[in-house]
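Key result, reporting period 2: structure in, sequence out.
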């Protein structure tokens, strides 16, 4: 089993104490987001890989040597300011965190995500080009891959358009980003990749790949993992994994986030978090049906 920690919230940034408590106790309970009383119990003895995804990797650093399961860490590093990412720490601190993690677990086990890209009058193509150049120059030798994506029209994006002020993408914009990012990444010995993008920019030197491919999963775990089941509107070809997070619980409050589709309830959900609980938000209830998940 591959544990995704997490695509639904930033567990590393806000819930690391809870995660380490679960790791030490040997299991975690995950409430089904579509069937409230159905709970999956996952034992860490059945986990082959920990796949962490975060905007703030600093809280995991003290625990890296404690975690004995193979891991892959994706760190999202974007150039936006507090108008778009109100509660994300200093990017300088995050970059230093990436370097420290790379030195501990190896540069093959950490990936940076420049994700998502959107264009506005404030965050122009030139702004992105300068930011990407600086990012690559600082991370040379510490990461080998940067994954980019373009902003999607999620519910939260629509609700926050007054802050985002997104301009439409044109072929010229794709060309400018594609050619410049490829050239910059190559200069610093970094591969630039898209995942699950209609505009994959391969014609400009990008690699079209998966965030967690079958080949990479095999390398990290020694096991063959199937691809995720394709659902309507989802063509992602990453391998099957189990997300232990919960939606509407990330306190970064980024204006483009898909996981906070009801931003107004994030704080209330956070107040229901108990670091000693077996599940991320709230506690097990007497009418919950708990089933052990093996894969």
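The corresponding designed sequence is given below.
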């Amino acid at each position: 089993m591959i544990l995704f920690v997490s695509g639904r919230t930033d567990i590393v940034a806000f819930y690391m104490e809870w995660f380490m408590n679960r790791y030490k106790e040997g299991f975690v309970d995950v409430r089904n987001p579509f069937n409230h009383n159905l709970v999956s119990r996952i034992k860490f003895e059945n986990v082959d890989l920990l796949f962490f995804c975060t905007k703030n990797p600093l809280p995991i650093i003290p625990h890296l040597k404690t975690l004995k399961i193979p891991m892959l860490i994706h760190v999202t590093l974007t150039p936006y300011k507090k108008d778009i990412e109100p509660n994300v720490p200093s990017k300088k601190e995050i970059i230093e965190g990436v370097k420290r993690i790379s030195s501990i677990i190896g540069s093959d086990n950490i990936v940076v995500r420049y994700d998502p890209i959107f264009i506005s009058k404030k965050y122009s193509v030139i702004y992105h080009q300068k930011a990407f150049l600086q990012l690559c120059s600082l991370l040379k030798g510490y990461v080998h891959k940067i994954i980019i994506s373009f902003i999607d029209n999620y519910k939260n994006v629509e609700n926050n358009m007054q802050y985002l002020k997104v301009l439409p993408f044109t072929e010229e914009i794709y060309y400018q980003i594609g050619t410049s990012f490829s050239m910059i990444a190559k200069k610093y010995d970094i591969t630039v990749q898209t995942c699950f993008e209609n505009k994959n920019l391969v014609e400009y030197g990008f690699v079209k790949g998966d965030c967690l491919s079958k080949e990479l999963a095999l390398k990290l775990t020694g096991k063959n993992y199937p691809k995720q089941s394709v659902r309507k509107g989802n063509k992602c070809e990453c391998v099957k994994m189990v997300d232990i997070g919960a939606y509407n619980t990330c306190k970064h409050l980024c204006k483009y986030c898909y996981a906070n589709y009801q931003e107004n309830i994030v704080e209330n959900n956070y107040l229901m978090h108990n670091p000693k609980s077996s599940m991320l938000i709230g506690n097990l209830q007497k009418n919950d049906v708990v089933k052990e998940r093996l894969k």
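The first helix runs from residue 11 to 14. The chain has one domain: 2-285. This case is discussed further under Risks and Mitigation.
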